[in-house]
Amino acid sequence: KAGVTQTPRYLIKTRGQQVTLSCSPISGHRSVSWYQQTPGQGLQFLFEYFSETQRNKGNFPGRFSGRQFSNSRSEMNVSTLELGDSALYLCASMRKGTDTQYFGPGTRLTVL
Amino acid sequence: KQEVTQIPAALSVPEGENLVLNCSFTDSAIYNLQWFRQDPGKGLTSLLLIQSSQREQTSGRLNASLDKSSGRSTLYIAASQPGDSATYLCAVHNQGGKLIFGQGTELSVKP
Q1: What residues form DSSP beta bridges with A22?
Q2: What pLDDT digit, counting tens, does each position of B83-93 carry?
Q3: B23 touches B4 (CB < 8 A)
Q4: Residue A50 has what pLDDT?
Q5: Which end of chain B has the smaller Cβ count within 10 Å, N or C?
């Protein structure tokens, strides 16, 4: 069974631009969560989607948004990029009725 | 507010040594605790998940324990190998899909 896939793997943007990251969960998994990882703050929860509905949200500004499609694929959007948004963005999927989260390889975003 | 702390931040051991990584959390009302491994620049690999009702889980050379009342978990690695070198993260699961992570322990196993 294929793992969690994220595209693109690497991205370079400039301040003020916007970016969309994509995550495809493991087949059959309906929960997708997004995390931001930086050297200073570590791993921080952004949001979680289940069956196209946002179920949980972390403490990030409104510039960070997401959505989930009927096939469980999820996208995360960051508008008006700032230098501090440079990070590794990880998504994780989880099967209903279980608690183990499976992570993708991440998207490395660099904001110049 | 749940806080997760991992000690030590970094650890270097010779190959073959048994070692223990520590994780503590401030709020004992957790659903479960999960240990991950992260190689440089890569995603997270799930190692072990301990439900709040369990005391320990084992997988190969790895054994994780959980003491909810004291807010502690340990990851024991037996007979360490250079391939075990990575950052080890513990995360507590409070509700829904939200994991709260510690800062990790960077492990280096020297041949």
Answers
A1: A7, A75
A2: 999 999 999 98
A3: yes
A4: 92
A5: N
> Residue B62 has what pLDDT?
97
pLDDT at residue B97, as a whole number = 62
Q: Of the candidates B42, B51, B97, which has its C-beta nearest A33's C-beta?
A: B97
List Cα–Cα distances, A34 to A16, A47, A103, B104, in angstroms.
22, 6, 9, 18
Query: How far apart, in whole angstroms, are the C-alpha atoms of residue A13 and residue A8?
Result: 13
Q: Are B20 and B7 in contact (CB under 8 A)?
A: no
For chain B, say whether A60 makes contact (Cβ under 8 Å). no
Cβ neighbours for A97, distance < 8 A, ≥ 6 positions apart: none
- Token pair 């501090």: residue: A84
Would you state the pLDDT for residue A95?
82
Query: How would you write B7-69 as a 3-class SS string?
Result: ECCEEEEECCCCEEEEEEECCCCCCEEEEEEECCCCCEEEEEEEECCCCEEEECCEEEEEECC
Q: What is the pLDDT of residue B29?
A: 87
Q: Does B43 touch chain A (CB under 8 A)?
A: yes
Which residues of chain A fall below pLDDT 70?
A: 1
State residue A36's pLDDT score: 97
Instruction: Sort out which chain B residues have CB atoms less than 8 A from A39's CB and list them.
Output: none
Q: Can you read off the two tokens belonging to residue B28?
A: 């004992």
Mean pLDDT of B41-65: 93
